[in-house]
Amino acid sequence: MSTAWWRDAVIYQVYPRSFADADGDGIGDIAGIRSRLGHLRDLGVDAIWTSPWYPSPMADAGYDVADFRDIDPVFGTLAEASALITEAHEANIRIIIDIVPNHVSSKHPWFQKALAGEGRDRFWFRNEPTNWTGEFGGKTWTRLPDESWYLHLFTPEQPDLNWDNPEVRAEFESILRFWFDRGVDGIRIDSAALLVKDPALPEVVDGEPHPFHDLDAVHDIYRSWRRIADAYPEKALIGEVWMPDVTRFTNYLRPDELHAAFNFDFLGCAWDATLMRACIDRTLAAHATVGAPPTWVLSNHDVTRHVTRYGRADTTFSFDNNLDGTPVDLALGTRRARAAALLTLSLPGATYVYQGEELGLGEHEGIPEDLVQDPMFARRGHTRDGCRVPLPWSGDEAPFGFSGSAVELWLPQPAEWKGLTVQAQTGDPGSMLELYRTAIRLRRGFRDAPMDWVGTGAGVLAYTRGPDLVVALNLSERAVALPDHTSVLLTSAPLDGDLLPPDTAVWLRR
Ligand code: ISL
Description:
Layout: E1 10-14, H1 30-35, H2 37-43, E2 47-50, H3 78-90, E3 94-99, H4 109-115, E4 125-126, E5 141-143, E6 149-151, H5 166-181, E7 186-189, H6 218-230, E8 236-239, H7 246-250, E9 260-261, H8 264-267, H9 273-290, E10 295-297, H10 306-309, H11 330-344, E11 350-354, H12 375-380, H13 422-425, H14 432-443, E12 451-453, E13 460-465, E14 469-474, E15 480-481, E16 487-491, E17 499-500, E18 504-509
Parallel strand pairs: 1-2, 1-11, 2-3, 3-7, 7-8, 8-9, 10-11
Antiparallel strand pairs: 4-6, 5-6, 12-13, 13-14, 14-18, 15-17, 16-18
Helix pairs in contact: 5-6
6-O-alpha-D-glucopyranosyl-D-fructose (ISL) is lined by residues 60, 63, 100, 135-136, 154, 190-191, 240, 242, 301-302, 319.
């Protein structure tokens, strides 16, 4: 294992509720992850990032944490988490866990004490609410029986912490050490740009500084976290930073702050050669200014799966643009997702793979409303549940090997996933799974090689990685000539003689 492993790693996001269920209750668990480590080893990933597994009332699927130093019984025990860390390391897989510092669960002892009048300064209590709109839409203040209001940028079950309070800072520094001491290799930081609030709590006014998005003082927190990480060997801090302004974004990646952050600019980009090229160039240039590794992200547990996005007329993603229910061409989306995999796995930097994308899963848009769990649904009319459906592992019918028995899962799986199980795809050279396995294996040969663009016609992206590899992706509607090469290493779809068909990517030996 190299140092600075996060700079060019393939990092696989495990959503514990939906990865694998070992105890048969229809919800994924740590024992399930341990039982399926072989899948991750065969896929060839360097690290996994696990979404929150802490004790939680699950008002926001575990992003409402009641105790950062334990594991929710639905997922297992602290001993099992330690066993997972050990077993992953034995398989040469690093572990990144999720820390949610913006808020805690309303059942967290600190908030329970605050309700009783003790330690209210750990949160934001006021006599009057502001006009702020929450991240899921709706109000950010809830009134208590004593007529005071408390702040929550997400649901009322997620009261925001007051990061001006030194006790809050000390607590999270201690939590980081707790998990680093248990062997985790990195921390994914939830909602990383929201922690600091303007203590005057002014109204949100267009053209004036925002009271809670990306305040400069948030960087002090990450400088102190970096000092903690640096006291251990090879720990990485990875920020969830949604930030349209590229300079404001890379501020989080200065040498004494976070090691990396998710590239949501790329995730939201349309399937369009000019826009993608511009986004890639913007990414590379911005990261170079701070010496941080670029990251490439197509999907995660919050966004519409990219097989579905790329099969729509509008291929962008934004929380403000709800495309649910608009027509989807899944065959086209899958074809583009295959090409996108060869793009993201060959660009310089780290690549994130969200569980199920290696199987080519689309968004499950058919979840009956009465089964929807996501608190965003009531506020925005969009549910994130469609990308959180339990994975299909084997067999011809639900639960497709997710649970050992025919139990009802926490979210239903579509019957069409029969053809997309790990079992069905294994050994099929035309499957998404085998494409990912091969690409991740070949990637090891060039992942630290320099990248240079190759001139091509309109609608085509082409670049070299060192002396051996040239990559081409055709986003136009016509077949185009392949760049100069000696042999074909990997294609996302069959070539058309010497031509690269539309929505196809290829890795060539120069
Ligand atoms: O909702 C948004 C914008 O309106 C997002 O930018 C949102 O702030 C972002 O997706 C934060 O997500 C993270 O924190 C949430 C949790 O529900 C998500 O699952 C998590 O990824 C609250 O903890």
